[in-house]
Amino acid sequence: MSTERSEHHRTEHLRPERQRPERQRQDRHIRRSGSGISWFALILGIGIGIAAGLIYTWEIDPVIDPQVAPHQLGAEGREDYVVAVALSYAHNRDLNLAFDRLRALRPDQNVWQMVADMACNRENTGKMVTNADIRVLRAMVDLYYPQGARNCADDWGTPPAPLIVIPTQTPANTPTPSLTPPSTKTPTPPIPTNTPIQSTQATATPRAGGYTLSRLQSFCNPDASGVVEVRVYDTRGQGVAGVKVQAVWRGNLSDTFYTGLKPEREAGYADFAMTSGVSYTILIPNLVSDPPVVDAVVCDTTDDGEVILMSYWVNFEQRLN
Amino acid sequence: MAKRYVGSLLIGILIGGTVAVVIGWGLWPAENTNSPLQDLDSAYQEEYTIMIAEGYLYDRDVNGALARLQPLNKADIFAFIQQLTERFISQSNIPAITPMVALAEAIGRLTPAMEIYRSTPVSTLAFGN
Fold first, then answer.
1. Residue A231 resides in a domain
2. Exposure check for chain A: N or C terminus, fewer CB within 10 A?
3. B95 interaction partners in chain A (CB closer than 8 Å)
């Protein structure tokens, strides 16, 4: 009994000694498998790493794509590209091709409206200095305007071909019979017979042949701002007076003037004052070449700040038959 | 405890940074939206040059055409036009040949290969630009 008790006591006494390393081992195992890594810190670190990495790779040192497409162009490049499309369209008149090329820019609006906005911007920012600038703007307007887009540069489009109105022979006004007026003391003058009036145009009609444009040149002169100086010459180089000259603008507006009214200048001279920002087509009868188009653009300003409009010399010469 | 935390954070940053580099430079690189014309892909540069050449046929303004080609930033724009024109001829790129030959002729780079593609000269008017 005493032996049993002492054994039991020894066992009781030794149990904690044996169990302690086992528990420590278990504790260590638990710590290694789960608590060696702080999950919170790991996830936080991944977040910080991704954010910092993307800032670096996208903003600080992005990969330069060597194959840039039109939609990746900056504002200046896009404008150059649109100008090229408009000029190309002015030559080939291939609307589908122009549309595909403009669509490559991936605008966030209607492609035609994009062209209209750019044209308006060019006009507003003063990119209208030379005739080349005007031709560019006209090409842009001719591209977007028929597609329904509108903006402030609309008036710069090529004016439609003017309608040549051939005057028809109007019958002479024959007096309608009326009741005989009561006799008066003063005799009534006889009713004049309507005789056809000789028009000035008839005298100006060239007999030799049609007229061609022989000179179209712009000049900038503060003393003659926005003036179209028209000169008409016959086959011998002599000025022709009485030629009807017509300036047409915005398709349906026109003004008519005649050569020879300022003989102190030249016999075949006439001039016309333009309004700023308007394009004019100059026409004369029997013109066999394309009618010239002149634009009243600002070419300079005076010291007083007064704008000077571009002026033009427009000469027509009669051809031999 | 602090050592464990810092170690985990550093491991996380390393993993996150690696993932970001793969995404940012490889899978989904940043798209440059402010490129100049000179960075255009060569195919688009050639198409742009054709458009300018067609524009030249429209307005016959060789100085304007050259000015519009300047942003391409070619070392020798004349040689570029000539080589491109000859390549279009060799490739039988018919729509591009006529305008490119006209432009090459205007800048004095008409070669024998281009001769037969010359368009009929058009009389030009002198504009005082």
1. yes
2. N
3. 92
